[in-house]
Amino acid sequence: MVLLIHHTTSPFARKIRLQMSEKRMLFVLRSEEPWNLSQDVYKLNPAGELPIYLNDGKIISSHYAICEYLEETNPDVPLIFGTPEQKAEIRRMTDWFDNKFYREVYRNIVWEKVHKRFARGQSPDSVTLKAGLNNLGFHFEYIEWLFEKHAYLAGEELSLADLSAGAHISVIDYLGDVPWDEFPLTKLWYSKIKSRPAFKDLLKDTIAGIIPSRNYTNLDF
Prior knowledge:
The chain is of the alpha+beta class. Helix content is 52%, strand content 8%.
């Protein structure tokens, strides 16, 4: 049985959960607080980062390595597929969210609203939060432009890029910070993503002391 050590606010762990669910894999979860990691985590991954994948004595850390490992060991439902150029585009858009979006949007919103609260007992910095919300608009404008060209982020079929994007956006949507009505094409795409069976368990996630937005579990928002 696969064990994934994760936290509900980790977009990288959410991405892996979606990937495994799309591949119809069975797995169990163990939660760790990113701001208060146990020594077990450092023994499994000296970098002290989540998620960590364990299965039959195999230990894989780094969400990039886990994604590639899952693609190689569970090829029946590929999420990186097509020509070399198509695969490159899927990886490019996955990297866009896992690096650029994470750095410019996620960290400025989720770290301010969640991590600082639980790790330090501090309130969000308004300047940092405003920067994250402004950056969110810029990123969504780019996504809108992509959806004028095709149905999904990297083409006409669901790919790992969509799962990465959905994982990041879902946490921000939980906090109620996505102006959905300003981005109709992105809203339509996200409604398709969150309606997939793989997304079902993510929508059950809660953050202690923080009530999810009214849109979070609503499939027809």
